[in-house]
Amino acid sequence: MEHIVIIGNGISGVTLARHIRKNSNKKITIVSAETDYFFSRTALMYVYMGHMKFEHTQPYENWFWEKNRIELKKGFVQTIETHSKTLHFAKGDTLQYDKLILATGSKPNKFGWPGQDLDGVQGLYNKQDLDTLEQNAPNNKVCNRAVIVGGGLIGIEFAEMLVSRKIPVTFLVRESSFWNGVLPEGESEMISRHIKTHHIDLRLSTNLKEIKADENGRVKSIIIEETGEEINCNVVGLTAGVTPNIDFIKKSNIETDKGVLVNRKLETSVPDVYAIGDCAQQREAIGNRRPIEAVWYTGRMMGETLAQTICGNPMEYNPGHWFNSAKFMDIEYQTYGWVFGERNRPDYEKHFHWIHKDDNKCITIAYHKDTKLFLGINTFGIRMRHEFFDNVLTKKWTVDKVIEHLSAANFDPEFYKLHEKDIVTQFNSETGSTILLSKKSWRKIFA
Amino acid sequence: MKIIKHTGLVLFIIALTIFTGTLFTGSFGLTKAEVEEYVTAQGYKSEVITEALEKAVSTEKELSIFEFSNRVRDAYQASNDHYDNLIAKYDAEKNWDKKGEQYQYKIYGKPHTLSYNLAKNAGSGYVKENAGLMWWLTFGLGIIGALLFILPNFILLGAPGIKNDGVFHKAATNRGWIAWLVLFYLVTFYLLLYFKADYVVNWTYILDPISEFLNGGKASQWFVYGFLYCTIMTVMAVRMFIKYRHNKYQILRTTSVLFFQIVFAFLIPEIMTSLNMPGYDFKNAFPLDYDFFFEWNIEKLTESGAVGLFILVWGTILTLVIVPLMVYFFGKRWYCSWVCGCGGLAETLGDPYRQLSDKSLKSWKLERWVIHSVLVFSVLMTVVTLYCYFSGAESFLGIHSQWIKDTYSFLIGAWFAGVIGTGFYPIFGNRVWCRFGCPLAAYLGLVQRFKSRFRISTNGGQCISCGNCSTYCEMGIDVRAYAQKGENIVRSSCVGCGVCSAVCPRGVLKLENDSMDGRINPTEVLLGNDVNLLDLLNKK
User: Fold this and answer.
1) Domain residues for A441?
2) Is B227 among the domain residues?
3) Which helix (H) or strand (E) element contains residue B395?
4) Do B273 and B375 have their domain in common?
5) pLDDT digit string (tens) for B441-463?
6) Is any Cβ of chain A less than 8 angstroms from the Cβ of B458?
7) What is the per-residue pLDDT across B177-187, written as a single tens digit (0 to 9) for each?
């Protein structure tokens, strides 16, 4: 029986294992050094905040794995020997594989800041990081202030976590407005304002110079590059993005760059070795996507796809329309299709931006300035229907048609106040259109 | 703000202590004339009960309610023993006529109920004489304290949004010592209420004025329970309004259950009683209202003229037509989390405990066995009762009518719905009764599962498996198991509280009524992946 070994029990590896089991009788082993069982990494923040217990982050009960004949091995792989198809573990034991899948995920970026390895300096990525944070910042007596470095999705979650325990937070963001490398200006500024309403000391256009230690080698303060200001703190959170977690793979003969290089079939340079999820790097980017996509859904989709290949139905990784979501403190964010921030915005991409007077809801619709083709939407504080926009993008609707049928896209809970009328009115007045809001449901539209 | 909160907590605890303390106050006794009047009014034929009761309660001694209860129950026991001895004696003598005569002298009824009926008129003391002041010191102070504890959250919780910070860090909401203390208090409360009502007779004095105002009569233990129920729901609804003030579905739903509890379950029956009509809760559907088809209820209703007849027809139509039809259009949520009293308490007082329900597959299996057994039990009981009612028989299918009614009332009505259903909130979550025990929920669930437009839609491929939805599902549904596969959630137990959708950080879940086509949509691969792969696998 063919032995499939998956390194990494995150969403990519586990999705792959589940789908291989559905389609075959192959022997499956998942190797992880992090935890005994699969858990949802995105939910770690809720454990610290007390919304959930760690066991709640585990999507499958513990009997699931044995019932589905998925073997779990806890161990740290030190070397991969591809010629003999052998994994060598840190404890000295070995494991033979027929096919190997690398699904090792990411690790936090460190950019060589002085003091970045001190006690009290940490990222927020894995279970160990959560345990460390519980040690470093159990409350605001032990941790009088924390400094977060890096204004991305993990940074704002990290800040929200600390605030939940009433720990003062200084948030250093390199950009001039929060996440404006990705978000258009209006949205980025709204989120920046929202962060401040949570009493977070948000420092924009601010870089970290160094982290200083006390006599015990623990972090005591940080120095800001631009002003030289020293901020006393007990915890420094490094959240300046993530990078593939592939140090041990680099020692093997598997070709790597920033990540493990793969082709569209998710095959690495070595036969019978594949890579999926955060650690995989496409040799050529797919569409507007980045070569390395450290996103929950893409990891899952790679797992779904590769399972087909491994079970004898070779298939390329060919993701559909881009989508994503996040939550910034109290404001939910969803995106469908492509909406670019100022930095990467193509010439032809025009934006329509609507913001609610409460300053906690807004949308940005991107469309082609000549053809009026709908390109994508960012929505904040209003939930929208994935299926609606997936259809719209496939059918290449114009922006006018999307605006006309915007009610059908709404996914907010029942009885919520609807804003489509406002949006249409503003769109009409800005573009000189005379669109009337349609009441048709999305099912009827695409029937 | 913190100071206000803590002051509120202290006031509430003081009020609760006084409320509990009143149980130990007052002195109880009746004059011989009063005893004789009572015995005559009750129509007791026993020749020894009057003397036994007089000896017991017409005394110079100041009796506490507990001593009073002991003496009264002993007196009844003595009277019954007297005739039992005679029965045994005549039995031995084979004097059948004499033996048969003795039975009419026996007094039936639960000892604590007999004692309660006497005690209600026998008490005197500070609480009874100062009912108004005592109301303020217990209910009044409790309400003020609780509100002072709750209202600052409007500011302390920060901007509107989901605020579950620290839920699993607190002893009250994570099965810590506070939770066990609350459990102990609630369980004791229900045990006294159901089984030793005489011990809580002092509470009825506090509410006598209000009861007299509403229905012209003195407060019973059930009036106390109803009033307390409405008070607790109102105060805890304020908490809901603050906690979910960003979520209109939650606000409307909470307002609705509160309205139905206060108006339908409490006020209307009280007013009907005052108008000499049978008090009836028009929203309480059989088989949750398990004694609707009991002989005494049917008789009471048929003897009450047009109103009674209307109630009889309404109750039947409610269960057979209105309930299933509404479930078809809106799901069982229209009842369980918008109208029902049990649901109403669960969604207000119980909301802080919703995360404690068990999500394991095992508990789901147990749930299905237990709740459907209760449904079968209730239907069987009703069939037996109705058959016996119309045929005049004592039993049907070998089941004794009185026995099955008593057993159901005791096991399901009192223990399951009350003691366990509510008493165990702090440990097993707030919907133990609704999930495992309620026969109406089982019936609605069958309709919802097989013939309804309601579902919780999953938003394409947006789920990140975080587990907030499952954690906060009070019914113990593993919502995530469906959402992370891109499948809609169609489950018989779902009461449509909407909290899964509220706590979802990624906008994945929406409660909807829509066409039944594609309502249940098992998927292999989620939206967002290769369209060819989706076609290949999802249409297989």
Assistant:
1) 323-445
2) yes
3) strand B395-396
4) no
5) 999 999 999 999 999 999 999 99
6) no
7) 999 999 999 99
